[in-house]
Amino acid sequence: MRSESKSSAADSSTTAGQPPPSSPEAASADRAARRAVTVFPLLVLAAGAAGLGTPGTFSGWAPNVPYLLGVIMFCMGLTMTPRDFSGVVKRPWAVALGLVAHYVIMPGLGWLIANALGLSPQLAAGVILVGCAPSGTASNVVTYLARGDVALSVSVATVSTVLAPLVTPPLTLLLAGEFLPVDAGSMVTDILKTVLLPVVGGLVVRLVAGRFIHRLLGLLPWLSAVTIGVIVAVVVAASADAIKSAAALVLLAVVLHNGLGLALGYGAGKVARLGAPASRAMAFEVGMQNSGLAASLAAAHFSPLAALPAAVFSVWHNVSGALVAAWMSYRARSRSAG
């Protein structure tokens, strides 16, 4: 859920990755970011409840999920500028570490958790697919709230999304292939159509009509949030009968996956001595996933039940991300005051 607050934060971040000094613009961006992170999980939770309570309302909507994801990724592209890629050139080591940590830690955790909990093949494949997805679209906003290195967060999230067609399918085949058949070639095509092309299209439109698009930036995160909510409702509705028996186990898997990802991502930054702000960014770039993409791919290539972990992850990682960001921000302010 990239937003105007992301752009404001990234544009005004210091080299140390700290948020800018107090100003009306910074305060406004901070309020917008907090509203988005607070309202988004509530909206998605309401959408999930709607899907569970009235599954018939969303029957037949499943074929539209890839198109809905395309809308989300197009909105993401509209928020991007060439500056988002500049961090790769300025800090290639840090960005490379973030990418390796993301695409090693989360897929590996997904496989370990699926086996440790003895998940059914459908749920195991779904958890692993969440782990193999690129960074979550709200990770940079949460990094900003945590007083983290926003520039690094934006770079890692952007590059992980661009690399998804090359990385996500083979990783899914390697780790989830023991549970279900995986058509990696078809998955590559789907990611290109629903992720890369819309992102590139949005970026081109931003370059061509930047002034007009800038006026709409405040609306884009909300459009993305509503669209993700619809995806969650469709996924939950398709698995409504199975949720009653599997909900607790899926929630446990998601909480472990996300929590360990946040912790290990932060630890990777510390071990690499990237500094506290960059380590905070690493936590969210590793622990937060593009669950909308995972849900779309799971529904298309596996089953609606396999998409359930992604739907639950979509709610949980925003709740946990906001809480961890608040804690990190409090600690950073306390140390600065001390």
Describe this entry's structure for a reader.
Keywords: Membrane, Transmembrane, Transmembrane helix. This is Bile acid:sodium symporter family protein. Its main location: membrane. By secondary structure, this protein is an all-alpha fold. It has one domain: Na+/H+ antiporter like fold, CATH 1.20.1530. The chain is 78% helix and 0% strand. The chain is built from 15 helices and no strands. Helix 7 packs across helix 8 and helix 11 crosses helix 15. The chain is globular, with a radius of gyration of 18 Å. The two termini are 34 Å apart. The N terminus is likely disordered.
List the helices and strands and how they pair.
Elements: H1 4-12, H2 24-53, H3 65-78, H4 86-90, H5 92-116, H6 121-132, H7 139-145, H8 150-176, H9 184-208, H10 210-216, H11 220-238, H12 240-271, H13 276-287, H14 291-301, H15 308-337
Helix pairs in contact: 1-2, 2-7, 2-11, 2-15, 3-9, 3-11, 5-6, 5-8, 5-12, 5-13, 6-8, 6-14, 6-15, 7-8, 7-13, 7-15, 8-9, 8-13, 9-10, 11-14, 11-15, 12-13, 12-15, 14-15
Number of strands: 0
Unreliable spans are 3-22
CATH topology: Na+/H+ antiporter like fold
Oligomer description: single chain
* Overall number of structural domains: 1
The share of residues in helices is over 70%
Main pleated-sheet profile: none
Distance between the termini: 34 Å
The CATH C-level class name: Mainly Alpha
Element pattern in H and E: HHHHHHHHHHHHHHH
What is the number of helical segments per DSSP (H or I, 4+ residues)?
15
The overall average pLDDT, rounded, is 83
Silhouette: globular
**Mind telling me which CATH architecture this is?**
Up-down Bundle
Return Rg in Å.
18 Å
Briefly note the structural class of the backbone.
Answer: mainly alpha
Strand content: under 5%
Protein name: Bile acid:sodium symporter family protein
Subcellular location: Membrane
Pfam families: SBF
InterPro entries: BilAc:Na_symport/Acr3, Bilac:Na_transpt, Na+/solute_symporter_sf
